[in-house]
Specification:
- The structure is a homodimer of 329-residue chains.
- Helices cover 42% and strands 16% of the residues of chain A.
- The longest helix of chain A is centred in the N-terminal third of the chain and has 24 residues.
- In chain A, β6, α12 and β7 form a beta-alpha-beta unit.
- Chain A has 329 residues and is of the alpha/beta class.
- At the A-B interface, α9, β3, β4, α10 and α11 of A face α9, β3, β4, α10 and α11 of B.
Chain lengths: 329, 329
Amino acid sequence: MRLNLLSAVALTAAIAVSSVAAAADALPSWKDGKAKQAIVQFVKQVTTKGGSKFVPLAERIAVFDNDGTLWGEQPMYFQAAFVLDRVKALAPKYPEWKEKEPFKSALAGDLKGVAAGGEKGLLELVAATHADTTSEEFEKAVKDWLAAAKHPRFNRPYTDLVYQPMLELLAFLRANGFKTYIVSGGGVEFIRAFSEKVYGVPPEQVVGSSIKVKYELRDGKPVIARLPEIDFIDDKAGKPVGIQKFIGRRPLMAFGNSDGDFEMLEWTTSGPGPRFGLLVHHDDAVREWAYDRESHVGRLKRGLDEGPQRGWVIASMKSDWRRVFPFDK
Amino acid sequence: MRLNLLSAVALTAAIAVSSVAAAADALPSWKDGKAKQAIVQFVKQVTTKGGSKFVPLAERIAVFDNDGTLWGEQPMYFQAAFVLDRVKALAPKYPEWKEKEPFKSALAGDLKGVAAGGEKGLLELVAATHADTTSEEFEKAVKDWLAAAKHPRFNRPYTDLVYQPMLELLAFLRANGFKTYIVSGGGVEFIRAFSEKVYGVPPEQVVGSSIKVKYELRDGKPVIARLPEIDFIDDKAGKPVGIQKFIGRRPLMAFGNSDGDFEMLEWTTSGPGPRFGLLVHHDDAVREWAYDRESHVGRLKRGLDEGPQRGWVIASMKSDWRRVFPFDK
């Protein structure tokens, strides 16, 4: 009996050691440095049974921004590229768009012209390209677009432009009992169309901006009809609201890249007990892009200024990531 | 090698047989009858690898109404009892309520008087009892109430009035890889305060009606403030909408008890592939209550008329359930 007990202890210790080793190996695209160490150490602490910082399985929630955190967002949000392409695809049905803003600018690929129409113009574009379909039709439209469209710089499908280190991080957290959520300013149904396949995040773990929908029968067949009206904007202070609405529990870890994620990291890391916040810093113009304080897309100023004193990790794309995209060598 | 392979096959077969047996035993409070058979057979079909009706893990979503399906709803919705008690608890802070409807009626426990105030009065009650708190304060208020309040007929905590057969069903489905969701007309944060402990359903798997919330800093501390404004009503045609918003995927199985669940079952069972719908019929005045077509609470008319021809199972509380509540012998 005594010997068996000792063997069991030795075996458990061996498993524990190998599991830490496995943890380190689970993030091969993260260079050994402060960011990777902070992630691995935090996960080890909250998953060590009997440790002072142990967190039960049910409370292991990690939230990830999407644009600029899990995939690229330059030269424009990928969903904006979808909108422009969809305006072109729908244009034959709406000949009046040729002369009518914001469609005229959208058809010309003129983002400045679109922006000149302000919020009203953007809402018209969203209504025209995201509504007037059922949920199933919209899902198909997004999937068809993702299968056909190519990113202008890399000449690859947009879903190739996901960050390899973040894919590894998602898998590492799930292997440690975390539920991984996307909490994005982007459209929830746009992201759901690819999140499971690309990130391993199922539709029910995607929180995002949304338009209103309505249940109705069409020729006796039930459908979810998408309406031309904004329901919820999941950005900035809307992110903690989205987290409360959809998850109903404060996350343990939050990952973002812009000041649109500030409140999400603030809400997450101000909870009691161990909490973790990380911002991806786009400082790699060679492999990806370099932008922060002055950028229109993914502006990161307050996070850089206040993040470190709040204990948030600033991960440098240039120095912390061995690879950026899965197709990088 | 050959022998080993045969042993492995024999072992697998033994596991398969014992797992079917385990399935039958997992629902001891369901009498052997059509309802139980239909449940067990459906779950067996969708979980049998290689079978024509096999459904991958990720798509195994089961949705449950709460009031009247997972716990009682007589003599009034339990959340209504919370509202009346909370009006009494808050009344000292609002002396004007003594003379002001709907509070005057609520303080007198006069539901007819409350109802006379119509929707406007109800919204005032919801605002007074559910808003003007943070999410954490509200959760505490519900938990404190559940710990103290007693059901008038059974003189037990309301959370004792959950249905034992449905607890077994939730566990049985989860053991078979299902994600179990609550989709309720009741308040989402009210249900979240006890769903994990009582049903094993975590907060992120509760969909319900909601008021608006706002993220803000109070004395530098982030809070989710609850606002006196309805955000979403998750009832009738709102249930498929809630399912789309929060889950983003059509469920495989749906369980309800009233015509408020009709559209949820319709949406669920009109999907492609195998689908399952079940309505709990309250026909047991001795152990619980008997009500259906004419009831104000939990009215069930259309479901009884159209359910069977749609292939929905009508489960009789009286004949299909061996026990109703966990405290029944």
